[in-house]
Design goal:
This protein is α/β, with parallel strands linked by helices. The chain is 43% helix and 20% strand. The protein has helices at residues 3-17, 26-40, 45-54, 58-68, 80-96, 112-127, 145-153, 158-161, 167-173, 185-188, 222-235, and strands at 101-106, 136-142, 155-156, 174-177, 180-183, 191-195, 208-213, 236-244, 257-262, 265-270. The longest helix is centred in the N-terminal third of the chain and has 17 residues, at 80-96. The structure holds S-adenosylmethionine. S-adenosylmethionine (SAM) binds next to loops.
Length: 282
């Protein structure tokens, strides 16, 4: 791979999905793309780039994005945040809202995140019948069609099941089917999936009470992070919450949120009033 081809590919990827590759990820690019090149009968990255630039092969473009995105996830990832959801966020929202709650899982990968949110809600409702809103809609989106397909199927293999589920949750929320496990209807019914590139306009999703955007923005440039966070803030209802990954922070990227610290972790709440210049009369 020449450095010209590498740079060309980097530029394509950032333009297509926001993901920024460092200066020396040649190995990553070739290991992730070589099966795809072989399958498409393309001799090198240069030919792939030519095909991508022509722009007519949407499937090829999707497959390249699929190959280059990191879809690492697990059930109840950063578990304490889900406790916070049950003890603070959902009960608080239930008090202040009369309509159904809307939650967005942005960059949902293979579905563990939105399904975990739905399971946490289910547990909360069982513990507090009639006190918290059971009527919650969870919209889960990702740029990658292949992870969405897996997410929508609701079927997971033993390796996926081994990551993050207690035995109680496994038996309560899943049904075993020939060596695999299927998420039960009571969990699935609140979750809908759709393809969405965060670099593009997402206003049409409507307003949300709670947005999870975890372990997605880390791959993007600072300016793209700022842009996406501004647009995320504009979709939150008053006092709505944003949850980032446990290793992520909003520092320098957005001042639209108040940071709330709990023993279980950090969440961000949309500021009540935009910062206003105070006029002092002397
Ligand atoms: C590491 S996974 C995180 C999954 C989950 N949120 C979690 O924390 O476990 C990141 C996901 O972001 C998605 N992604 C990457 N770029 C994206 C973009 N531009 N728009 C939407 N999703 C994107 C990837 O396809 C991948 O599934």
């Amino acid at each position: 791979m020449t450095s010209e081809d590498y740079d060309g590919f980097r530029a394509f990827l950032e333009e297509a999905c926001g993901i920024m590759l460092g200066d020396n990820k040649h190995y990553l690019v070739s290991s992730r793309l070589s099966p795809l090149l072989a399958e498409a009968g393309l001799p090198s990255l240069r030919e792939l780039l030519v095909r991508l630039k022509i722009g007519t092969d949407v499937r090829l473009r999707d497959r390249v994005i699929d190959a280059m995105t990191t879809n690492e996830t697990s059930w109840f990832r950063d578990g304490t945040v889900f406790e916070l959801l049950k003890t603070v966020i959902l009960p608080g929202l239930a008090k202040s809202r009369s309509a159904r709650l809307r939650v967005w899982s942005a960059g949902c990968s293979t579905g563990q995140e939105p399904y975990s949110i739905s399971m946490a809600l289910h547990e909360l409702v069982l513990l507090n019948p009639g006190k918290v809103a059971a009527d919650v809609q969870i919209v889960a989106t990702d740029i990658s069609p292949s992870v969405l397909k897996q997410a929508e199927s609701g079927i997971y293999d033993a390796a996926a099941m081994a990551r993050g589920l207690t035995p109680e949750r496994r038996s309560r929320f899943f049904t075993a089917r020939g060596g695999q496990w299927e998420v039960n209807r009571e969990v699935r019914q609140r979750v809908s999936f759709r393809e969405l590139n965060l670099c593009q306009n997402f206003q049409a999703l409507g307003k949300f009470d709670l947005i999870f955007c975890r372990n997605v923005l880390i791959y993007f440039s600072s300016s793209l992070k700022r842009d996406i966070l501004t647009r995320i803030a504009s979709l939150l209802l008053p006092d709505g919450y944003l949850i980032l990954g446990s290793a992520e922070s909003l520092a320098n990227y957005s001042d639209a949120f108040d940071m709330l610290r709990f023993p279980e972790g950090i969440v961000y709440r949309l500021k009540r009033h935009p910062a206003r210049v105070q006029h002092h009369h002397v």
